[in-house]
UniProtKB/TrEMBL annotation:
This is NADH dehydrogenase (Ubiquinone). Pfam families: Complex1_49kDa, NiFeSe_Hases. Ni(2+) binds at residues 64, 67, 360. It comes from Methanococcus voltae (strain ATCC BAA-1334 / A3). Mg(2+) binds at residues 45, 327. Keywords: Iron, Magnesium, Metal-binding, Nickel, Oxidoreductase, Ubiquinone. One of its GO terms (molecular function) is NAD binding. Fe cation binds at residues 67, 363.
Length: 381
């Protein structure tokens, strides 16, 4: 029998980003765990302080490469809500299309990541191949596969307008993607070897999920309703018909399955949005330049990112500069839940359990401004 500690990280072969995990074990069973993040501190919130709001919004896009659009959309939405800025309907539909495409590629990336941890290299590579049509759509719409820079205050950039011809090209690629991802989802749910590694592993019951404020697919895998799009926080989705996916298995398999079926719902949303765009009665306007940016105290804005509830808060002073920036990504709370539930499982399950919440360490690693800085800026707001 061996009792001691196993230290993993800050670099681990199966994890996409650096972190440090300490496992305190009895033989091969985990008795306690300590997960440390902070390797990727870049001080985004501090850098936003004092920037013109337009520049600060663009900076938020650089927080993450996988969920760059939702960060930019969240910061732009906050300013639009606070200053009561009208956004054309066409621009709203295009923002939704980009966000749901981003959800497709993010969830598919997690599938590939999970297969890699499980040692199924072939399926991992197949997931990346399946994801490729989505990345091609991003490039055709925005000219980029990572940072699309689509939303701006008042609408979207002209280069991101989706024409009728582009809509005709997107639909076959979406069909191809749906066919391939459906086969992968079927494999995940029915392959005995894969199921045996994920079923009843990393059980996050509803009580623990609520205690640690698990969000997104991590919470929905424990049968906790948490979709901000369905809860009225993102009214841009009110015109779309889609289901909130819930599973009650509470394990790794359930959290993976939620994302699989969410992919199919996202495809449904994209097709509806394309239908709206090709409707001749829809105004071609994509940008409202007739607005005035008002000074406002810090307010809150919530959106549903790929990993769950995303929180943005900042104010704008009389000079149009950002003050008191605060950002909370869904991984911040999901990781706390994962650290809690690894206890009692084998060492070989640890990274799989943590990966099942689809962590984005770089999103989470931001450095807030120092408390004394508030005194400097408070008189402005």
């Amino acid at each position: 029998m061996y009792e001691g500690e196993i230290a993993i990280g800050p670099v681990h072969s199966t994890m996409l980003e650096p972190h440090r995990l300490r496992l305190f074990i009895d033989d091969e069973i985990i008795k306690d765990a300590e997960l440390t993040i902070g390797v990727n501190h870049r001080g985004i919130e501090r850098l936003m302080e004092g920037l013109p709001v337009e520049k600060a919004c663009i900076l938020t896009e650089k927080i993450c490469g996988i969920c760059s659009h939702i960060h930019l959309w969240s910061s732009v939405r906050l300013t639009e809500i606070a200053s009561k800025i009208y956004v054309p309907e066409r621009a709203q539909h295009i923002r939704v299309i980009i966000e749901e495409l981003e959800r497709l590629h993010s969830h598919t990336l997690l599938f590939g990541h999970a297969f890699e941890i499980l040692g199924h290299e072939t399926m991992s590579m197949r997931c990346f191949m399946t994801r490729e049509p989505v990345m091609q759509i991003f490039f055709e719409i925005s000219g980029s596969r990572v940072h699309y820079s689509c939303p701006i205050i008042g609408g979207i950039r002209p280069r991101c307008d989706i024409t009728e011809e582009q809509c005709r090209k997107i639909l076959p690629k979406l069909d191809e993607y749906e066919e391939n991802i459906s086969a992968i989802i079927d494999r995940v749910l029915n392959d005995p070897l894969l199921v045996s590694r994920m079923k009843d592993v990393g059980v996050l019951d509803r009580k623990t999920a609520a205690k640690f404020h698990a969000v997104g697919p991590t919470a929905r895998g424990s049968n906790v309703k948490s979709d901000m799009r369905k809860m009225g926080w993102v009214p841009e989705y009110d015109v779309y018909e889609f289901d909130e996916i819930l599973f009650d298995g509470c394990d790794v398999l359930s959290r993976i399955a939620v994302r699989g079926f969410e992919i199919l719902e996202s495809i449904k949303i994209i097709r509806q949005a394309i239908g709206f765009l090709t409707d001749k009665s829809l105004s071609p306007e994509i940008y409202n330049s007739n607005y005035e940016l008002e000074e406002f105290k810090p307010i809150e804005c919530y959106t549903e990112a790929q990993r769950g509830q995303q929180y943005y808060s900042y104010g704008v002073d009389a000079d149009g500069r950002v003050r008191h920036a605060r950002i909370r990504t869904p991984t911040a709370t999901n990781l706390g839940a994962m650290e809690e539930i690894v206890r009692g499982y084998h060492v070989s399950d640890a990274e799989l359990i943590i990966a099942s919440c689809d962590p984005c360490f770089t999103c989470t690693d931001r450095l807030s401004i120092l408390k004394e800085d508030y005194n400097t800026y408070s008189k402005k707001i």
